[in-house]
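TA notes, week 10

Several of you asked for a full example with nothing omitted. So below is the full record: structure tokens for the whole chain, then the designed sequence directly under it. When grading your own attempts, check the secondary structure regions first.
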């Protein structure tokens, strides 16, 4: 198997970033047709994901990331069960496996079976040695470790089947926002991206917002008006209509702006087209509450003084993770380097 070095990998990953800035016609044809296989993968959402990857793979970020990486000379086969909730959501895991010099044995999600193959095919053109380190498999076998992403339900099956090998098994997580009432209209509008990008389907999408007591819901809704066109997507609209009907039939109090339902609820995981909210008295008390929920939270959108600071991102930035922002706060590279 050809030798890979950090230098070669950094060059290949950055060349991919340059390509994503101006992809060719063949690549655009595949990405634009993704919605034929998954109606959530609208061209603008696929482009949003590609733009995020392009930002991630900048030279300075790659060099900083590779300072923490050892490229092994004895590659291990890493079985990978990928999610398909948002376009190319599994790419960072694949990147981590390749960056550490290992072999990615990939079981694609049926919801995202077209985009990753063409993305990785393009990467191989920049570093042909990677061709032997990328394997697509319908059934995983003869692997040395597993990275599996799924729901709380599927994680129990993953634990059963893969519990005897080194593994990262991910469950459901949600992201939240904390407002202190001092946010500008522009900041709330940016928060709209954290809520609505990818139709709210990602674990980094905000599914609940914590509001200070006495907060005016009207101010929140007014700042989100520019996202009204989301209701024109038939699947999103179906979810909005369904959840609105449930609330009305059950007599559940809620706010409604015509494309988002806001419901007071202690839960974190809101249904699609619904945003849960909860009032809080003070930041100190809220920090204590959130401290007991860390294993359920992916990231926190806020400018308030929250702990731990490492989980907090600025308004509009939840869908723009850095290379070192690992899902579930589990360092994938450290796991791979420990094998």
């Amino acid at each position: 198997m050809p030798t890979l070095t950090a230098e070669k990998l950094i060059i290949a990953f950055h060349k991919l970033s340059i390509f994503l800035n101006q992809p060719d016609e063949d690549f655009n044809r595949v990405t634009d047709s993704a919605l034929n296989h998954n109606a959530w993968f609208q061209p603008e959402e696929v482009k949003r994901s590609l733009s995020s990857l392009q930002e991630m793979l900048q030279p300075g970020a790659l060099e900083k990331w590779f300072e923490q990486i050892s490229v092994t000379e004895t590659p291990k086969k890493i079985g990978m069960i990928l999610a398909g909730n948002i376009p190319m959501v599994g790419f960072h895991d694949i990147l981590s496996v390749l960056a550490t010099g290992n072999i990615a044995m990939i079981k694609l999600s049926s919801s995202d079976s077209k985009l990753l193959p063409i993305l990785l095919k393009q990467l191989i053109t920049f570093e042909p040695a990677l061709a032997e380190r990328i394997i697509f498999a319908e059934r995983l076998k003869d692997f040395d470790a597993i990275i599996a992403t799924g729901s709380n339900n599927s994680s129990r099956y993953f634990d059963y089947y893969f519990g005897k090998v080194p593994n990262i098994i991910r469950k459901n997580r949600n992201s939240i926002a904390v407002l202190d009432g001092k946010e500008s209209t522009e900041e709330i509008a940016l928060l709209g991206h954290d809520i609505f990008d990818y139709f709210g389907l990602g674990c980094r999408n905000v599914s609940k917002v914590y509001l200070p007591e006495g907060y005016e819901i009207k101010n929140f809704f007014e700042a989100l008006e520019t996202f009204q066109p989301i209701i024109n997507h038939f699947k999103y609209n179906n979810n909005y209509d369904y959840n609105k009907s449930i609330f009305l039939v059950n007599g559940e109090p809620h706010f409604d702006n015509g494309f988002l339902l806001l419901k007071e609820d202690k839960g974190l995981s809101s249904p699609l087209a619904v945003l849960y909210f909860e009032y809080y008295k003070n930041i100190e008390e809220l920090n204590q509450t959130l401290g007991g929920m860390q294993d359920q939270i992916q990231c926190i959108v806020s400018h308030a003084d929250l702990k731990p600071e490492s989980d907090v991102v600025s308004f509009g930035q939840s869908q723009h993770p850095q290379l070192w922002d690992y899902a579930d706060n589990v360092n994938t590279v450290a796991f791979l380097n420990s094998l």
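The first helix runs from residue 6 to 21. Use that as a sanity check on your answer.
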